[in-house]
Structures are given as structure tokens and as C-alpha cells.
Backbone:
């Protein structure tokens, strides 16, 4: 007599077969999506590279859900050729579609910035003249200037689809004692970025919370 809550053997066997079929289908999809010569982007968990995506080309499959890729811009230490590395499918994605044409990025818009040969996620913290922007990076608490041509709209690869990112969480406050730009602690785990004289908050400053 089986214990309460434990499915009968036949039902459990059917469930296991169903899971096996799903895994095989997933493997086949990955093999088809990341076939030899396909242009992709890869990410690394190494210190200093978290969150960045680098352009690469699939060289070949090297195992279950694992592929050898060749970077398009990163070279070997001896500069003899482009670097090759193995990645699993959790760290590989197709290149974002280039159908989006953006003439101008807006304040607080989430973007990808091309920096040190990779695409890094940031937020437009200030719109400058001459098609230039200041981009704030949460992970490093840095603000760097970029040309429009080195930015692209941020998209997320979720469940096999490209999803446009929502605007950064923001909240508007009035404040009379802020200087041009000032970062202040907000609540534990958050960073507040004050931008004085924001067009959307003419009476004071904008507070962007990450």
C-alpha cells in the first residue's frame, strides 16, 4: 500500500517520461538555435565581468547544452587570435534584434552600453548635447559618458523571447538643498541618485532608486 501523496508507479513513470521528453525537446531546440556559425552573445560569472554580454560565434557543440564559442573582439593573451571559451546555454543568448531604431534616449531609460568590448546594463542619468549621455551603472556605482552610437535599448531574453525592459524604478522628490549631482544612501540595499533641475521635476530634483 502506497503512502498518502505518493503517486502510483504507473503515474510516476508517465510523469518521468514526460519530463524526459521535455528535456530532449529543450536539447534539440538549443542545438538548432546555437548551430555552428551562429552569432550570439555570451556572459561570464568571473569577477569584474558579471552582467556584461560579449559578441561571439558558435564554433561547435561540446556536450549537453554546452558550446564552444569564439569571441568577436576579445583576443588571446599572446594576441595570436580571438579567444575561445566554452559556455552552457544559461550563459548564451541570440543577438538582440536590430529592428529597433532609436533617435534619442530619454532620462532614466535602461540601456546597454558598449564598454571594454562588452554590453553593460545601465540607466541614462543625464542627457547631454551632441548626442551624448551620462550612463549610471548600479553594480559599480559609476557614471560614464557615452556617444549615442555606443548605446542600444536594453532587452531581456526570457523564455526564448526578447522583452523590452521597463523604465527604471523612479520616484520624484522636491529638495532645495541638493547640489548639481549627489548620491545619498536611501534605505539598506538601495542607492539614490539625485539629478538636479530635471525637466520632469522642475520644482526640485529627481530621485532615481535602484
Residues:
Amino acid at each position: 500500500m502506497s503512502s498518502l501523496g505518493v503517486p502510483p508507479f504507473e503515474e510516476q513513470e508517465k510523469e518521468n517520461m514526460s519530463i524526459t521528453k521535455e528535456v530532449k525537446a529543450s536539447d534539440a531546440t538549443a542545438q538548432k538555435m546555437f548551430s555552428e556559425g551562429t552569432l550570439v552573445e555570451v556572459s561570464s560569472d568571473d569577477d569584474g565581468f558579471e552582467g556584461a554580454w560579449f559578441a561571439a560565434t558558435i564554433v561547435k557543440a561540446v556536450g549537453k547544452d554546452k558550446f564552444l564559442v569564439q569571441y568577436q573582439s576579445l583576443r588571446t593573451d599572446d594576441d595570436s587570435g580571438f579567444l575561445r571559451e566554452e559556455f552552457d546555454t544559461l550563459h548564451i543568448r541570440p543577438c538582440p534584434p536590430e529592428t529597433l531604431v532609436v533617435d534619442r534616449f530619454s532620462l532614466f531609460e535602461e540601456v546597454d552600453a558598449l564598454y571594454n568590448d562588452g554590453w553593460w546594463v545601465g540607466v541614462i542619468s543625464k542627457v547631454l548635447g551632441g548626442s551624448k549621455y551620462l550612463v549610471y551603472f548600479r553594480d559599480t556605482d559609476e557614471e560614464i559618458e557615452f556617444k549615442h552610437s555606443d548605446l542600444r535599448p536594453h532587452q531581456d531574453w526570457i523564455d526564448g523571447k526578447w522583452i523590452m525592459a521597463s523604465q527604471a524604478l523612479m520616484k520624484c522628490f522636491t529638495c532645495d538643498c541638493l547640489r548639481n549631482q549627489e548620491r545619498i544612501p536611501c534605505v539598506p540595499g538601495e542607492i539614490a541618485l539625485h539629478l538636479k533641475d530635471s525637466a520632469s521635476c522642475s520644482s526640485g530634483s529627481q530621485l532615481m532608486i535602484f
Remarks:
- The domain at 110-209 is CATH 2.30.30 (SH3 type barrels.).
- The two ends are 55 Å apart (CA to CA).
- Residues 18-25, 167-210 have pLDDT under 50 and may be disordered.
- The CA atoms of residues 97 and 162 lie 8 Å apart.
